[in-house]
């Protein structure tokens, strides 16, 4: 399920800056949720992935990861906030240094 309709409704009623502020301040993604979602997208078990860094900007959470076999990835998770009722789109990931090909909505 895509979380775009709720984000779009917010943009139409509050303006994009207001939506991004609300989304960023109400992000509820835990490290465990991030590891679970991103590891699955990368083909690893959550226990095989470590979060190097993370930051939330608006509706997106940007995560740098390192696997137990020393591979590094960057991922974007869209959602996980009040405006999306905690739901997220599947993460978009790429090896460190490569462009993330499929950016999620809201970025």
From TrEMBL:
Keyword vocabulary terms for this entry: Signal
Signal peptide segment: 1-23
Domain of life: Bacteria
Protein name: Lipoprotein
Record organism: Pseudomonas chlororaphis
